[in-house]
Amino acid sequence: MKFTKLLGLSAAAMLWASGSFAQEITLKLHHFLGAKAPVQTQMLEPWAKRVEELSNGKVKIDIYPAMTLGGRPPELVQQARDGVVDLIWTLNGYTPGLFPRTEVFELPTVFNNDPAATNLAMRDMFDKELKQEYEDKGLEVMFLHAHAGNGIHTVDTPVHSPADVKGMKLRTPSRTGAWVIEALNAQPVAMPVPELPQALSKKVVDGALIPWEIIPALKLQQQTQYQIEGQDHWRLGTSIFQVSMNKAKWDSLPDDVKAAFRKASDEAWLKQVGDIWRTSDNNGIKAAEADGNELITLSADETQAFKDAMQPVVTRWEDEVKGQGIDGPALVKEARELTAEEEKNLASQ
User: Fold this and answer.
1) Contact 138/248 with Cβ under 8 angstroms?
2) Three-state SS for 20?
3) Phi and psi at residue 93, in whole multiples of 5°?
4) What CA–CA distance (Å, rounded) separates 184 from 187?
5) Whose C-alpha in 22, 76, 97, 336 is 20 to 30 A from the C-alpha of 107?
């Protein structure tokens, strides 16, 4: 009997050592969109599963969509910083000015039309230029990413020139988005994206600056008639998102678990995320067109007119961050060069 017990104890010890009984670390990931939104089904869920597999089952990530743990979207950064949740996916623009260096990638003419190249360029620049502004806020970044870019949605007005936008009230995702709208002589209205459908239906806004991928999730095709973008999917800047962990929680993790998170968030993943958002964007506009909406693709000349109108936005950002000791023109130059290099690399693959 004693011998049998000893054998059982030895087997259990071997299983523990092999990882079969490894202690599970359960982490809460909180975000602001619904459970069926592409960001959860196509990005966050696959990423969490990849971390769990690479950690050999040591990590379990529970995803809480639609602010189900409480608060409003702009509070997500504070929730992660304070340790209320372990992980967040959020839009940097909900906390304007908090991550000023990263903002460079939001700017029109820095971002043109390639989310994958932007993701990789941010990775290239991260350690040297961006990392500190997250660590100073008590965050450890898992990865940063862009969406497919801000197009114009309007309730009932076709747009072919900056003059067509003049006087409109447009929902903005960020302060750089607000500057884009102001450069077009329109009025920015800030609000978290879940509030947009009601704002459109009540005529609080005439349209929005937002990508196509969110159309099906928010049923924007029922509230808008026109979607407008430039030639070759050129967009009016983009938004930057982060998946970040509470820094103290990160520091407490074993090295092998940290390695699992890093591997799950590597260069190949960032390219895949770019592809996910491009595909989701394509699917979003297809859903709108199937419901009778019109996609207006600007001609080369019309696109150039919008590009020309965007230069003051870049200058405004450079002036704004100068007061924080940031060399804006140098960051713009580096971001453009890195993005162009990554675009070239991706095209050659």
Assistant:
1) yes
2) coil
3) -65, -15
4) 9
5) 76
Phi/psi region, residue 149 (left: phi>0; alpha: psi -120 to 50; beta: rest), is left
- How does strand 207-210 pair with strand 169-172? parallel
CA angle at 218 for the pair 215 and 223, rounded to the nearest 5°: 75
Q: Report helix, strand or coil for 173.
A: coil
For 35, 56, 99, 216, the CA distances from 147, given in Å and listed in that order, are 18, 31, 17, 15
At what angle are helices 328-348 and 300-322 packed, to 10 degrees? Answer: 140
Whole-prediction pTM: 0.92
Q: Closest by alpha carbon to 202, among 214, 216, 191, 217?
A: 191
Closest CA to 157 of 236, 226, 223: 226
Per-residue pLDDT of the chain (349 residues; tens, 9 = 90+): 443 444 444 444 444 444 444 569 999 999 999 999 999 999 999 999 999 999 999 999 999 999 999 999 999 999 999 999 999 999 999 999 999 999 999 999 999 999 999 999 999 999 999 999 999 999 999 999 999 999 999 999 999 999 999 999 999 989 999 999 999 999 999 999 999 999 999 999 999 999 999 999 999 999 999 999 999 999 999 999 999 999 999 999 999 999 999 999 999 999 999 999 999 999 999 999 999 999 999 999 999 999 999 999 999 999 999 999 999 999 999 999 999 999 999 999 9
